Amino acid sequence: MTDATRRAVLLGAGGAGVAAVLTACGGDGDQTATVTGDQTAGGSAGTGAQQGQGALAKTADIPVGGGAVFPDRKVVVTQPAAGDFKAFSSVCTHRGCQVQSVSDGTINCPCHGSKFAIADGAVTRGPATRPLEAKEMKVEGDSIVLG
Hints:
It is a single chain. It contains 1 helix and 11 strands. The chain folds into 2 domains: 29 residues; 113 residues, Rieske Iron-sulfur Protein (3-layer Sandwich). Helices cover 16% and strands 31% of the residues. By secondary structure, the protein is of the alpha+beta class. The radius of gyration is 20 Å and the shape is globular. Pfam families: Rieske. Keywords: 2Fe-2S, Disulfide bond, Iron, Iron-sulfur, Metal-binding. This is Cytochrome bc1 complex Rieske iron-sulfur subunit. One of its GO terms (cellular component) is membrane. Its cofactor is [2Fe-2S] cluster.
């Protein structure tokens, strides 16, 4: 193999490696959420760009008695009663895992089974002993905005 051919092969392999890394790590900014009420269901609450500057979700995306987990924003939003929205950290206070779902009135961590109340983030089942941290949020029209 000549030096020119060897260089072409190495450059080609290097370019493919860079393309693979960019594809794997270069997300498009989509903020996918797990939205659940009494039954577990997956879905996307959309992106901030689609829902207005800084918007996390539409109020209609958060079911009454349920919630949505936004792993990339490390937040879970719930609606314990109609029109009453709450936001909490989605990081479990037991070992730092991400909570994964909201069902039957609780925010659920898959790692060790901890459960938290959708109304106030209080522990309803351990091993966690501390509630989820409340996050500031507000409803602007039909959008939920953090902060």
